[in-house]
Write a structure and sequence with these properties.
Elements (H helix, E strand, L loop, with lengths): L4 E12 L2 E12 L3 E5 L6 H8 L7 E6 L2 E3 L4 H6 L2 E4 L11 H6 L5 E2 L2 E2 L1 H14 L15 H14 L4 E5 L7 H16 L3 E6 L2 H7 L2 E6 L2 E7 L5 H9 L17 E11 L6 E11 L2 E6 L6 H9 L6 E6 L2 E2 L5 H6 L2 E4 L3 H5 L6 H5 L18 H15 L16 H14 L4 E5 L7 H16 L3 E6 L2 H6 L3 E6 L2 E6 L6 H8 L19 H13 L1
Parallel strand pairs: 3-10, 3-11, 6-9, 9-10, 15-20, 15-21, 18-19, 19-20
Antiparallel strand pairs: 1-2, 1-4, 4-5, 7-8, 11-12, 13-14, 13-16, 16-17, 21-22
Helix pairs in contact: 13-14, 14-15
Length: about 525
């Protein structure tokens, strides 16, 4: 009977200081199946997979491959057994090219010289076969996260791995890339690969998985066949309560303009063109404006320009009536701007600091946290951190003294959101705020964004999640190739129409910074008439 399982993890227990991450968990992966591992942030999913991949050793339990007990002491052992893993936070060397990363550790050499042509041919053949188009000569630091992920997948395929672990693979992808990944995963399973798919996105699990095992707070809850279950049933298993799937909000009551962007142009690091081209828009108090678009169309650079990470080539940024175009990051931060960054590791946290210090990163110099003598008021910082953790359900092994690096990705994200929402601000820039969060936590973030709006703040949301784009904002601005190509009312548009704008097949304006009223173009009118006629 054991033979039909590619992998069995039996009675696995893994402990960390202050927490049992995996409490006696058994997981069985059949050959050629896509098996989803579902659970909320910090449920122990990544830990369990890290035990399988040899990054951690379990204190109790055994792992079997094809019915035989195996010992996996490090990732090399896992690779030798044909187990590969795409991590939630990619393990890539930024200054290497895509090709160099893929072959790293399994290089073909002749007389001490790297044989790149052979490797390149194999990588190109794999990318063709599985629909994973990449530029082998691009540097990792220059490509989008979606491309980085494809590089990770090719790395596994290059090593002929049979058991593929995908840890939250869609957290960083655009809707189109997610659809492509689902097709890739089905192709891989059809080719005889066995896939473990860690996720908390119920739509994806329903679409792609054969079976799903649910973890909650480190314990195994059960395994169900996907075809016999519903999203509501799975979310109940995962969170232990019913989850509100729809975003409820009153109509917005916009007031004064908080953020005004005029003719903003930001250079690109990748090529000689500008990444953001002559963009103008405004966000008023009491409204949520969402910048939607496929990843890599200038949203990241636009936010870098707004937050002060990158200088503008030209244009003006006015915050609360003050020209902050050349202001420092700290000045923006202390004069009304809060920012939930896209890359929580690079720009959101100091990973080797404890949680409590991360909670006061932009405020430690204020009298509340620093005495006149210049020393930090450690007791006050700890009390503040404990309050935010409690209010925002940030879970960690050792509370305020937990090192940020050791927390689950979702709880790192909750900590950043808690810090940014709690600071004194008039504008909240939220970039991918629900990336890597489970349904229960997403519900909480959306509630916070709407509370921000209802408390008279201006919210600029940048999101790649179509569901979020359609449900949370009051206005949608679509960005394509560095330009704003459309302004849409989420109540009046459809996902299909939004998709056409995002793909550049349609545009209805150059958004005028001085007005939120827009002229609908003939294309849009024709489409609407076409829809009526079709009916």
């Amino acid at each position: 009977m054991g033979q039909e399982y590619a992998i069995e993890m039996v009675n696995i227990t893994k402990r960390f200081p202050g927490i049992i991450a995996n409490d006696n968990i058994t997981l069985q992966l059949r050959k050629s199946e896509i098996h989803a591992l579902l659970g909320e942030n910090g449920a122990g999913k990544s830990t369990l997979m890290s035990v399988l991949f040899g990054l951690y050793q379990a204190e109790e339990g055994v792992i079997k491959k094809d019915g035989k007990e195996v010992s996996i002491n490090n990732p090399n052992d896992a690779n030798d057994l044909g187990i590969g893993m795409v991590h939630q936070h990619f393990k890539l060397v930024q200054c290497f090219t895509v090709l160099e990363i893929i072959i790293l550790g399994v290089e073909t050499t002749s007389g001490g010289v790297l044989q790149m042509d052979e490797a390149r041919a194999k990588v190109m053949a794999l990318s063709e076969k599985y629909g994973l188009q990449v530029d082998p000569d691009a540097k990792i630091e220059d490509i989008t996260v979606g491309m980085q992920q494809r590089t990770e997948i090719l790395k596994m395929l290059y090593r002929d791995n049979e058991i593929l672990i995908f840890d939250e693979p869609t957290a960083v992808l655009t809707p189109q890339e997610i659809d492509e990944l689902m097709v890739i995963m089905k192709n891989l399973a059809a080719e005889g690969k066995s896939i473990l798919f860690i996720s908390h996105k119920l739509n994806e699990i329903m679409e792609v998985a054969d079976r799903v095992s649910v973890l909650r707070r480190g314990k195994y809850i059960g395994t169900v066949e996907v075809k016999n279950t519903t999203k509501e049933e799975l979310s109940r298993m995962m969170v232990g309560r019913d989850v509100q799937m729809v975003v409820e909000k009153e109509p917005s009551k916009p007031g004064d303009t908080i953020l005004k962007v005029e003719n903003m142009t930001v250079a690109s690091k990748l090529h000689s063109n500008n990444a953001v081209k002559n963009v103008s828009f405004e966000v008023r108090e009491g409204e949520i404006v969402c910048i939607a678009g496929i990843d890599g169309n200038g949203q990241t650079e636009m936010v870098y320009g707004l937050a002060g990470f990158e200088p503008l080539v030209e244009g003006k940024i006015i915050l609360c009536g003050e020209d902050i175009t050349k202001a420092s990051i700290r000045h923006r931060s202390t004069h009304g701007m809060s920012h939930i960054p896209e890359d929580r590791h690079k720009h959101g946290l100091v990973l080797d600091y404890p949680l409590e210090y991360n909670m006061v990163l932009q405020r430690y110099f204020e009298p509340e946290f620093t005495a006149k003598s210049g020393f930090l008021k450690k007791k006050d910082i700890r009390g503040y951190s404990e309050r935010l953790e409690a209010e925002h359900d940030v879970r960690s092994g050792q509370g305020p003294i937990t090192i940020a690096r050791s927390m689950s990705g979702g709880n790192q994200q909750k900590a950043i959101i808690a810090r940014e929402v709690d600071r004194e601000h008039k504008l909240l820039i939220a970039v991918q705020p629900t990336r890597g969060l489970d349904v229960g936590a997403i519900e909480g973030v959306h509630r916070h964004l709407i509370e921000e709006r209802d408390n008279g703040r201006a919210v600029l949301l940048v999101s790649l999640e179509l569901e979020e784009v359609m449900n949370v904002p009051d206005r949608i601005l679509v960005m394509y190739e560095g330009e704003l190509v459309g302004e849409l009312d989420p109540k009046k548009t459809t996902v299909e129409e939004l998709g056409l704008y995002m793909a550049g097949a349609k545009r209805n304006l150059s958004v005028d910074a001085n007005t939120s009223e827009i002229e609908e173009s003939e294309v849009v009118d024709n489409t609407r008439e076409g829809k009526e006629e079709a009916k």
